[in-house]
Amino acid sequence: MPVVEFLQFTLNGIVFGMIYAAIALSLGLIWRGTRLVNFAQGAMAMITTYIAIEVIYKTHSYWAGFVIALVAGLVLGAASELTVVRPTKGKPELNAVIVTIGLLIFFEGLAGMLFGGQFRSFPTGFSVTGLKVGGTALGISRFDVFTVAAVLLTTLILAVVFRYTTAGLRMRAAALNATIARLSGIRVARVLTVGWALAGLLGALAGVLVSPSTFLYPNSMDAIFVLGFTAAVIGGLDSPVGAVVGGLLLGLTLSYVSGYVGGSVGSEITSLVALGILVLVLMVRPDGLFAGARMRRV
């Protein structure tokens, strides 16, 4: 039935859209403070997902792996900023871009050496059996519901932290104007490290949530990163709300295209559609749909 198909495609689009939103949020956290796109974000998420699966196999506990992945994301994000990105401060902007690309290559190569290049199935914390309402299949599982809830809850927590806590206010001040924030006594360098750590956590969350659907291998997060970046551009890299909305819009659009076109053609054309959306937004509103009238300068 057309209505049932539309419902299934919509729910599936929301699930993947929230994963794109998590990547978009992680990119936005770094962009707001440094005006830098971290091209290694997907690779960092992949590494933390490998750590999670190793913990799961050893402890036989999905939740132990889930928590360790988030902690590993925090540590990896902070360590990357402190050891590799910070030394590029004050140097040509291209240096930092090249460094993040270098991190991407390093992490993917490291994953291949440590864990091998074969595809690995990632377990889930909840059943993947499709849910039904009456006799109607919804096309999503309990784990998909958990995916949406986890990203929404994380987004809500970050929103509360940024708006109502001292640490969040400092991060917002540093993002708005680093010079004034520094003169006000805010340790901007430390704030940027915290931003990278939170971005690492969000990337780890996205990696753990999407890997049961895509399998895990050294390049498994490359396509997800591209789609997350597209979602961030759609909503605006400066806007957390835009990241979520951009992720949902992209997820729904790709789900409808893939579902209604169908077959191998549908899966191939989604990449072209994503590219077309990215180009269109950059041409019509390059700062994103939710960007302010004037882009802040740091």
Explain how this protein is built.
The protein has about 300 residues and is mainly α. The chain has a domain at about 15-220. It contains eleven helices and two strands; from the N terminus they run ααααββααααααα. A two-stranded antiparallel sheet has the order 1-2. Strand 1 (about 130-135) and strand 2 (about 135-140) form a beta hairpin.
Order of helices and strands: HHHHEEHHHHHHH
**Rg calc:** 19 Å
Low-confidence stretches: 293-298
Fraction in helix: over 70%
Quick one: overall form?
A: globular
Q: Could you tell me the number of beta strands?
A: 2
User: What kind of sheet is the major sheet?
Assistant: 2 strands, antiparallel
The separation of the N and C termini measures 53 Å
* Number of helical regions: 11
Mean pLDDT: 88
Q: Topology, pairings included?
A:
Elements: H1 2-34, H2 41-59, H3 62-85, H4 93-115, E1 130-133, E2 136-141, H5 142-164, H6 166-176, H7 178-183, H8 188-214, H9 222-235, H10 240-261, H11 263-284
Antiparallel strand pairs: 1-2
Helix pairs in contact: 1-5, 1-8, 1-9, 1-10, 2-3, 2-4, 2-8, 3-8, 5-6, 5-8, 6-8, 9-10, 9-11, 10-11
Which features would summarize this protein structure in a list?
298 residues; mainly alpha; 2 strands; 75% helix
Summarize the structure.
The protein is mainly α and 298 residues long. 75% of the residues lie in helices and 3% in strands.
